[in-house]
Amino acid sequence: MRTCISCKIMYSKYQGSACRQCYEDLKAKVEQCNEDLNAKLAFLTMPQPASFSDVVLFADDDDEYPVPVPAHKAVLANRSPVLRAMLDNEMKESLSGTIKIGDVSYDALRAFVNFLYTAEVCLDQQLACELLVMSEKYQVQHLKDFCQKFLVSNLNLDNSLSTYTFAHQHNFKPIIDAALTLITASMDKLASRDEYTELKERDPGLLLEIYEAYFSKQANTQWHNA
């Protein structure tokens, strides 16, 4: 015989330190709690009907079969000063309730709008580049910082030249500096790669800048070792 820690009555061994009745009561409470949590999760993750939004956005790559991304003017205006200006000044976007976003894919636009609501996004290399350009254009600093950190932290020999080219094109200095550091430290390995040959043919001026940084680094190293 044992004494139940909950009701203090004597019982035959059943479930650890609780009697059968207390164990069943606790089990029922846990199941009810799980049921309540699942119901709350289902409620919070219900899809938002487009009819209840007051603005829709369209991506530039959806000209033939445009797919709207519904949103709320208040959220867009609060997160982006550029979107706020568009929506506050009776521009055509504000009057029509439609915003056309140029030079962006539907997936990037959807991720961009979702970030404005949640401050969360699951990035890959391509999406990070697209969202970084969008965040710069629409002045969403938090997203810009997030994408830059992702691209810097994911730099490697395979993507260093393409990432440097992208960052140079859009003047994202933290990425330029990080990529250039990796490139100049690995010139002997990169020079035999197809990406190097393609860059040499496509943008010899950019490759010249890389070599200038490389030789400058070599000269500084020799001066310090002298």
Task: Please tell me about this protein's structure.
The protein has 226 residues and is mostly helical. 63% of the residues lie in helices and 7% in strands. The chain has twelve helices and five strands. Helix 6 runs antiparallel to helix 7 and helix 8 packs antiparallel against helix 9. The longest helix has 25 residues. The radius of gyration is 28 Å and the shape is flat. The relative contact order is 0.06.
Jot down its keywords.
226 residues; Potassium Channel Kv1.1, Chain A; Serine Threonine Protein Phosphatase 5, Tetratricopeptide repeat; 3 domains; three-stranded mixed beta sheet; flat; BTB domain-containing protein; SKP1/BTB/POZ_sf
List the helices and strands and how they pair.
Elements: E1 2-3, E2 10-11, H1 20-44, E3 55-59, E4 69-71, H2 73-79, H3 81-88, H4 92-96, E5 98-101, H5 106-118, H6 125-137, H7 141-153, H8 160-170, H9 173-184, H10 187-190, H11 194-202, H12 204-225
Parallel strand pairs: 3-5
Antiparallel strand pairs: 1-2, 3-4
Helix pairs in contact: 2-3, 5-6, 6-7, 7-9, 8-9, 11-12
What oligomeric state is this? Answer: single chain
User: In angstroms, what is the radius of gyration?
Assistant: 28 Å
Model regions low in confidence, pLDDT < 50 over at least 5 residues = none
Largest sheet: 3 strands, mixed
Please give the CATH architecture of the largest domain: 2-Layer Sandwich
Give a summary of the structure in a few sentences.
With about 230 residues, the protein is mainly alpha-helical. It has helices spanning about 20-45, 75-80, 80-90, 90-95, 105-120, 125-135, 140-155, 160-170, 175-185, 185-190, 195-200, 205-225, and strands at about 1-5, 10, 55-60, 70, 100. The protein is about 65% helix and about 5% strand.
